[in-house]
Amino acid sequence: MNELTIHFGSPLRVVQQQAPPILAAWFKFEVDNFAFEGATMAGTSGQAVSQKSSATMGAYSMATLSVAWKDAGGGTVKVDGPTTWSSTDDAIVKVTGGSSNPLITNIQAVGPVGAADVHANADADLGEGVVPVTAVISITVIAGQAVGGDITFTPTGTHPPSPGGPGKAPTPPPSRR
């Protein structure tokens, strides 16, 4: 957005200013065959903050997050320096890193069910100096889903089960004479 100011005094002044671009972020969350991409919006007060996206993952599972920094028009833009990642509760969702690309990180649901936010943080020059930009995704950890099972074999004695309970010898049939 451009701003044009005209002062009709002496001397006549005409000032044109171009507003600095607004940065936002686009999240991508992947776990197994599921991918979620989060919408973003611009923040206020000199800091660009993405709309809080959300995703759900099973306890003890892992996922990959990536962030794409965008301007107000939706175009991908660069930020100043690397993107850093953090979790609001490492006991529920831990940022494990593991990527040579700072725009991508791995996360793990390390324990109990619950929720934690994961933040991607960077600095951007919006034309009037460097300001922090942040993208946030809320991760809800749910109990794991059954994907298989184990059958346990437990021997109960030498005789087949009888109405009196396992392992009891059956009553012998009456003898015939």
Please give a structural write-up.
This protein is mainly β. It has a domain at 22-142: Sandwich (Immunoglobulin-like). It is 0% helix and 50% strand. It has strands at 2-7, 13-18, 23-31, 34-38, 48-49, 53-58, 62-71, 80-87, 93-97, 104-109, 114-125, 130-142. It has a five-stranded antiparallel sheet, with no helix packed on it. Strands 5, 6, 8, 11 and 12 form a five-stranded mixed sheet that branches. A two-stranded antiparallel ribbon has the order 1-2. β3 (23-31) and β4 form a beta hairpin. It is rod-shaped, with a radius of gyration of 30 Å. It starts with a strand and ends in a 35-residue tail after the last strand.
Mean pLDDT: 76
- Quickly give the CATH architecture of the domain at 22-142: Sandwich
Counting DSSP E segments of at least 2 residues, the number of strands comes to 12
For the largest sheet, list the strands in their spatial order. 4-3-7-10-9
Q: What is the name of the CATH class of the domain at 22-142? A: Mainly Beta
Distance between the termini: 111 Å
- β-strand percent reads over 45%
